[in-house]
User: Fold this.
Amino acid sequence: MLGYDFGHGWSMGTEVEFEHGGVEAAVEKETEETGEFEQEVERGGEVALEQFWLQKSFGKALNIRAGHIVVPVGMTNNGHLPTQFFTVYRPEGENTIMPCTWHETGLSLWGRAGAWRYEVQLLPGLNSNLFNASGWVHNGSASPYEFRPANSVAGAVRVDWTGVRGLRMSLSGYAGNSFANDIVTEQYPETSKYYGARATVLIGCFDFAFQNKYFMVRGNADYGYLSDAALVSTRNKNQTTMTGNPYQHTPVGQHAYDLAHEVGLDLLAWSPTTQRLYLFGRVDRYDSFLPAEGFADIEWTGRTVYTAGINWFPLPEVCIKAEYGYRQLKAQYNPEPWVAVGVTWAGFFGK
Assistant:
């Protein structure tokens, strides 16, 4: 994370994420070679530009931000640093059904007034070609190409209230069309079943957090709806299977949801040390595929996840994590237990 204050209310911020040493890879559609997909890979790893914006501040109540920004829909996207959640990986439910960490190029209007904080964003729509059964719209903000197609406009909003000490309560949401939001934009005639399809994505979220010296409680409830889900499912299943095609070939749920809560008890709260040692427990219940009419349910997409572990903060910016998790599916599917350990940090450089 790098930022700069130019003065007179102007500032900029960036967040670049490097994983496994960087990446040089892209998928291209070669129109000169019968329209086939080609993928070029020069080295492994991943690089994600999560934030890159310029901001003008007129005061606490009004700030305008333009560039690549985080979409604060849901609890995890709003607090995506590894020191802001107990689990080793991002909380599973939200990280499954929606983009996470969700970042787009757009405009943001935000500010604070008393105990309230608001943010309104104008963004490109998601891409229904990348929706699937196991992750609903999770992949919809991605792009396999060297650029991000954006043929439709969407909006996001978030409101936070912090009127009680240690408590935050928040509402957030997203709305936007996703059909034909890609480099391939077929023009369907009026006789086509796809004519007029919009595949509107609607997401509504509530989340809260309460913290004092002794314990921390956090939770969220998320619901998502996809219009024209049957048409999206049919189209995605019938997409070309040409080698290198980066699109999904599964049905897409008309609805998805996630319910989660976690509690952490600081075992060092009664000692004079400034360190923290949380013993935590967490439960996620989510389903990424509640089908449209005419499509059979996929029973393994409904999952309940139990997680318990510790978070040790030797410093406020450093956290060492260990956990045991148990993912429970319906009886005919095997449960999925795991053990995970993580060493994480999140620090900000300042002058």
About this structure: The helical segments are 75-78, 92-97, 229-237. The CA atoms of residues 201 and 226 lie 5 Å apart.
